[in-house]
Design a protein that fits this description.
The protein has 149 residues and is of the alpha+beta class. The protein is 34% helix and 17% strand. About 6% of the residues have low confidence.
Length: 149
């Protein structure tokens, strides 16, 4: 079985080498995988390069489905926290330079809480576990203090 797998790997290498380079001879005994050229990917500098707030969108969906953590019209407490943070940043004139975005699961899954990650050039990255309603003013005070460094 090992010999068969080695032979298949050697054939795959040959195929890649044929497509990648017509100048190089094909060597089935090569132990190194072929180098695949990486196409250039466009990059940009976003307006919010100094700060980003990530709010886990799955914390309240998975744990509190159907409970009091669902706000009106199916909005979860995570979404409500995210929208509230956005509106506060807009009110204080910080929106655009700093962003609040939702993420999928961050793997922490705290009981009756939401994971929020703050990324800022001055402090690096910090992770918080907050109550969506009870801790949001404290969280925003901290975010505003950091963003105005």
């Amino acid at each position: 079985m090992k010999k068969l797998l080695k032979r298949i790997l050697a054939l795959i290498r040959q195929i890649f080498q044929q497509f990648l380079s017509t100048d190089k001879p094909i060597s089935p005994a090569s132990d190194h995988p072929p180098e695949i050229p990486i196409p250039p990917i466009a990059t940009f500098v976003p307006q919010w390069e100094n700060g980003l707030v990530l709010v886990c969108s799955q914390c309240t969906v998975e744990q509190f489905s159907g409970s009091s953590y669902r706000i009106n019209r199916g909005i979860t407490a995570s979404e409500e926290l995210q929208n509230w943070l956005k509106s506060r940043l807009k009110f204080d004139g910080l929106w655009g330079k700093y962003r609040v975005v939702s993420t999928s699961c961050l793997g922490v899954c705290p009981q009756e809480r939401v994971v929020v990650v703050l990324r800022h050039d001055a402090i690096g990255q910090q992770c918080f576990i907050v109550s969506p309603q009870g801790d949001r003013e404290i969280l925003y005070s901290y975010i505003k203090q950091i963003f105005q460094l």
